[in-house]
Amino acid sequence: MTTEGSVSIVVPMKVWTPGLHGFRVKYLQSPRAMIPPHLLILELSGTDRFSDYEARRLAGFIQGFSYELSAFSYNLSMLDWDEETQSLGLGPRNADGFESIRKRVQKGLNLERNYRDKDYQPRLLLAANCSKSQYELEEAFRLMNGDSFSISCRATEIELYRRQAGDWLLQESVPLQESKEN
Are the C-beta atoms of 145 and 20 separated by less than 8 Å? Predict the structure, then answer.
């Protein structure tokens, strides 16, 4: 469970389709739905250290190393069921760009090794906290979006959200450096 004062570092998803939007509206019953479509890089929670002031300092820290990170393209096409959270997501074929951002943030924050070593798979959260099974959700997704759904996107910024009074509030948006990649 996400606590008050938690901070989420995300890559916003700027490309959207009616099928994705309709599916999320119908099946995503989660406070995370208050954050516009995104792929989670890192969530820092379970502590009171992220007051508004601390969240702004964290945003400044991210701004300070953003020159090291380049914008990148990615393709979302892999449905991903998380058994632990009973949620369905859509992940990229190649997570290298997300992984480099995550590693840089973790290194800068000196997070413990076991925190860093947890399995990480970036994904667009599609469905959570609903009464449907994995099979039912995957079938409903395919009916709304087709059997071989794929969407190309470009990561051009990092956003930092802070949970306050039950809402997720945007604290900062940090642009990534332009790259030579198309």
Answer: yes
Are 119 and 102 in contact by the 8 Å Cβ rule? The answer is no
CA distance 143 to 134: 14
Low-confidence ranges of the chain (pLDDT < 50): 1, 48, 114, 116-117, 182
Residue-level length of the chain:
182
How many angstroms separate the CA atoms of 86 and 97, rounded? 26
DSSP assigned state of 34 = G
What is the spatial distance between Cα 8 and Cα 40, in angstroms, rounded to a whole number?
7
Q: What integer pLDDT is reported at residue 27 of this predicted model?
A: 92
What does pTM read for this prediction?
Answer: 0.86
CA–CA separation, 176 vs 158, rounded Å?
7
Map residue 168 onto helix, strand or coil: strand
Q: Which helix (H) or strand (E) holds 109?
A: helix 96-109
